[in-house]
TrEMBL record:
Protein's name according to its UniProt entry: Histidinol dehydrogenase
Organism: Aminicella lysinilytica
Coiled-coil annotated residue ranges, if any: none
Highest rank taxon of the organism: Bacteria
One Gene Ontology term of the molecular function aspect: histidinol dehydrogenase activity
Entry-linked InterPro entries: Ald_DH/histidinol_DH, Histidinol_DH_CS, Histidinol_DH_monofunct, Hstdl_DH
Residues given in the record as NAD(+) binding sites: Y119, Q182, N205
UniProt GO cellular component terms: cytosol
Family: Belongs to the histidinol dehydrogenase family.
Keyword Oxidoreductase on entry: yes
Residues that hold Zn(2+) according to the record: Q250, H253, D352, H411
Amino acid sequence: MKIIKKAKERTAADNRELRNTVQAIIDNVCADGDRALKEYSNKFDDYVRGELRVSRHEIDAAYEKMSPQDIEDLKAAKANIEAFAKAQRGTMTELENFSPQPGIYLGHKVIPVSSCCCYVPGGSYPLYSTALMLITPAKVAGVKRVAACAPVVHGTGDIHYKTLVAMDLAGADEIYAVGGAQAIAAFAYGTQTIKPVDMIVGPGNKFVAEAKRQCYGQIGIDFIAGPSEVLVIADTCADPKVLAADLLAQCEHDPNAKAFLLSTDETLAIETIAAVEKELETLDTAGIARRSWDDYGEVVVLDSLDEAVETANNYAPEHLEVNIAKPEQIINKLVNYGSLFIGGNTAEVFGDYASGTNHTLPTVKASRYTGGVWVGTFLKVCTNQWMTPEASRRIAPLVNRMAKGEGLSGHALAAERRF
């Protein structure tokens, strides 16, 4: 292994101040409801809305600002996302009357959660694609009440019009102009205007992530997401300019985003660094991308593809690109990633917007134990069972003995009553 460009170490900073700040926001929203939300809107957004819920009139006005092409693009992207979500839903089948022994019948039902909130971040950019990614699979899953929220454009009191249209096209039942940790608290505990939900999904800044962490248990969440990441495995067949574009596509998200290149060829690695520097000269978002690349960009030359696989699995990235001549050589060896992009034709940004897979993915090594948001995020697999009288009498002595062994006489008695 040879490190050509090394990233800064991410330190395990003490987040006590963040935890305390978010806890205070949650407590305030629980105590004062809508009043607290409007106070935070005034403080952070420089605007106080009369109504937190977005009206049909506002949604229609947002459509008026869209070009026909903009609307068609959103519809085309949604169609692919919806089609894939439906295909995924089709793989989740119910199980009925499985019998481990005569007279005992087991099964499970696949049940959608009753309500969810899809949190769409608004920070630096209007991330309307995230509205499609969150709301569409929730609707396909069959969630009866799909609420959506997003921060307003600073000083206006309005959600960005493209985000608002995307929320509507995706099928949101309710839309609220509220963001930040206070939005998470509102949907977790409820206010005078906002009815609480069963689950909250979606990315956000560190305050949103911490609020989701603190509210977990009161509500379900997808996962706690951090800064965006991409890891690219490349060999001599890759184009340095393409690699540079893919790396910087992640860097422009956030100064804390990470772009990581693993190459089996040192010349390619050096040429890619040069291509990144050249692209940064003209990139509109170079202010953010430069900071991310300088601080967290990393380029490593490895002796073999097997070493690249081991490194990638240890890193467990959000996005993993395999840009090599024969991807099939290593695909089955890769086990830790949020989403996998196979071959040089498959840009990670295609998945960000329109190919159909979800872009709401685990970061900071969470892909070791979870995948991204998908239709199954909104579904519960709940078991059931029934028995014949004969089977009940047959299994009851076994359960009676096991319960007595644990010292649980009430359990033992409940079994004994069956025989």
